[in-house]
Amino acid sequence: KLIILASLIGICGFFIYLSCCDDCPTCPSEPMIGSYYVYISNQYQCYHDYIWIIDSRTDSLIDSIATPADDQVGIAGITPDGKYLVITSSLEGSLLICDVDTKEIVNRIYPTQHVLFPPGKSYMLAFRDGIAKYSIEDWSLIDSDTTPAGYWGGLFNSMSYFYGVNISNEFIIYDYEAMSVVKIDTLKRIDGSMPLEYYTELSSDDRYFYFLSSPNQVFKYDIEAGYIIDSIFISYGGYHGGLKCTPDGRYILLTEASSDFDYKNIGNLVLIDQASFTIDRRISTLGLNPFYPPGEALPVYGIGITPDSRRVYCSTIGPYISFDLTDLRASLIPELSSDCIGKGLAIGKQID
């Protein structure tokens, strides 16, 4: 009887486990594959711009946002709640604040060139000749500082800091809550020499600073030690653009294109393993170039990554490219015109 009772308890426990795993916070489970709004800015035949809206699960075009006529627009960012899209306007030299639900421009901010959205905060950081803090509730100016002029970068993951690098290769850490400088250093090797910085990214654990430099290397800078501790040669004649870490902390992603503007030879997404700081693989765009015979590649530039780290979107000289990091393949977004020019993208909220 005891054996039978124990068996029944075990069977019941097993079915309870199965029924609760999806919602129980103590049961480990795989993250669900997300479906996210992807906002893509395209300049169509140099006449009018549109913001295309893509479903990341299917890579299908689901809607669009018309922007002012005769203006060349890009995308600066999106608020953490996915409600407002921040659009750059070359005609007005400003930021256009667009409500993604109504698709209307609800505000304008002058003049700004780069923005960051601290997670969990109700304000936006805007950069040009200094730093300004704007409320994302009514877009009013909250605070400003001219101290970190010339520094643009990204946010730390665990602290209220942003980082940036200026043209003198000075590396800054700035507290955006206190509006004060925490640290300024130079991006130097142990011997004191300084490679020229191009594109930058912070490691997922906030310990290291990665930057792309000539001659085609990615450097690893130890923030606490204050110098470069490692580097990778990543080029075989290519031009390298965006540099970004995946949200799950696994990869550093780097875009690769032909350096001689031939537009036919090189077009890759380079996957660098963040833990070992070694190149894991390249995902090629060979055969996807609509402007040349089959077998040629599309150059790849800017990067946008979905929060589940499964999809990567990159701008090119024509249509946008979608990379699937689960099956390591590249594909075109079929419904976007091939005569568009990629000018920016942002990943929005999850689709219900």
Structural key phrases:
352 residues, mainly beta, Methylamine Dehydrogenase, Chain H, four-stranded antiparallel β-sheet, 1 helix, 48% strand, globular
Give a structural overview.
- By secondary structure, the protein is mainly β.
- It has a domain of 118 residues: Methylamine Dehydrogenase, Chain H (7 Propeller).
- It has 1 helix and 28 strands.
- The strands form 7 sheets. Strands 3-2-1-28 form a 4-stranded antiparallel β-sheet, with no helix packed on it.
- A hairpin with a 4-residue loop joins strand 18 and strand 19.
- The N terminus is likely disordered.
Count of helix runs? 1
Mean pLDDT: 80
Question: Level of helix content?
Answer: under 10%
Distance between the termini: 50 Å
CATH architecture of the domain at 116-233: 7 Propeller
In the CATH scheme, the class of the domain at 116-233 would be Mainly Beta
Give the helix/strand class. mainly beta
For the biggest β-sheet, the strand order reads 3-2-1-28
The CATH superfamily of the domain at 116-233 appears as YVTN repeat-like/Quinoprotein amine dehydrogenase
Order of helices and strands: HEEEEEEEEEEEEEEEEEEEEEEEEEEEE
CATH topological fold name of the domain at 116-233: Methylamine Dehydrogenase, Chain H
Beta-strand content estimate? over 45%
